[in-house]
Amino acid sequence: MGEIHRADIHVHMGDINHKDGGLKRAWSDSELNQLMSDCGMIAVAKSHFLPFVPEASHVLGSVTLNSGFSVEAVYRAAQETSKSLTVWFPSLNAKAHHDVVAHDDGWKRLFEGVVMGEPLTVLDKEGVLTSEVKDTIHAIAETNAILATGHLSATEVIKLIPYAVANGVRSVVLTHVSSRHNRLSTDEQIALINIGLQHGSEVWAEHCAVTWFDGLKGAYDLTKHFVEPIQIVGPDHCIISSDCGRVLPSNSDKPFTPAQCLDVFTSLLERSGIEKSSIRQMTNNNPKKLLRLSL
């Protein structure tokens, strides 16, 4: 592997037919690996519905718990990886995601035709973490995997992460904290980061370029939802990823590849007051630290 210039911790892929459940994806795992190699990047590949995403020279593996909380899924994925493994908590099958799709016409159109399973939540009826969730957290800790919060609600994340870091999970990603559907306030982000530090764990606030590029028109303000939160929480604790991999119409002028998404988005952030050194930290140093790569 040559020099890695940037690491993108959130890139979607599909199977050999570019399918992820009912979703069409731009790349298969091998195509994404070649794309990353060509531009000197490394990516964490994500699939909502494939059982496991294997690692390659420029792709790190992952598993997404959309089929349920599973110790076996975590152990099986860990056995198949020699590098950092990311375990995403439920995304499209998160109860919070189901609730959003049911009440948001834009998201109904986006996920039209996608067959989703039973809605999953980390909490029981009393608002307490379930035993299956706790067992899954212990498996993540034992395998030294990265826990990413997926599409869980803020209420769930606030209960999940303190338990996770208190029980040995050493790396946490608060997934797309800017998203209007599972947004965490800066106070909540800082509180979770500090709880992590108290237990010797790193908790990172992830900001995704595609949240900005593909968000409902008028739903996001670059300064309010990205620049100011990064400045308040601090670039030391933030990671910028692309969250790309979607298929765009041929006449679209939106950035497409991970490199394009990161380039355009970080240029906007820099023009809005984020220092160039902070941009590099959030797209290079911090994700590499999370993924245990050489800086």
How would you characterize this protein structure?
InterPro entries: DUF6282 (IPR046249), Metal_Hydrolase (IPR032466). This is Amidohydrolase-related domain-containing protein. The chain has helices at residues 29-38, 71-79, 95-103, 105-110, 131-142, 154-166, 186-198, 209-214, 222-233, 258-271, 276-290; strands at residues 6-12, 19-20, 23-24, 41-46, 59-60, 62-64, 86-88, 146-148, 171-174, 202-208, 238-241. It is an alpha/beta fold and 295 residues long. The chain has one domain: TIM Barrel (Alpha-Beta Barrel), CATH 3.20.20.140. The longest helix is centred in the C-terminal third of the chain and has 15 residues, at 276-290. It is globular, with a radius of gyration of 18 Å. The mean pLDDT is 93.
Keywords for this entry:
295 residues, alpha/beta, TIM Barrel, three-stranded parallel beta sheet, 11 strands
Number of strands: 11
Q: What fraction of residues sit in β-strands?
A: 5-15%
Distance between the amino and carboxyl termini = 14 Å
Second-tier CATH architecture: Alpha-Beta Barrel
- How many domains, in number, for the residues? 1
Protein name: Amidohydrolase-related domain-containing protein
InterPro entries: DUF6282, Metal_Hydrolase
Organism: Candidatus Roizmanbacteria bacterium CG_4_10_14_0_8_um_filter_33_9
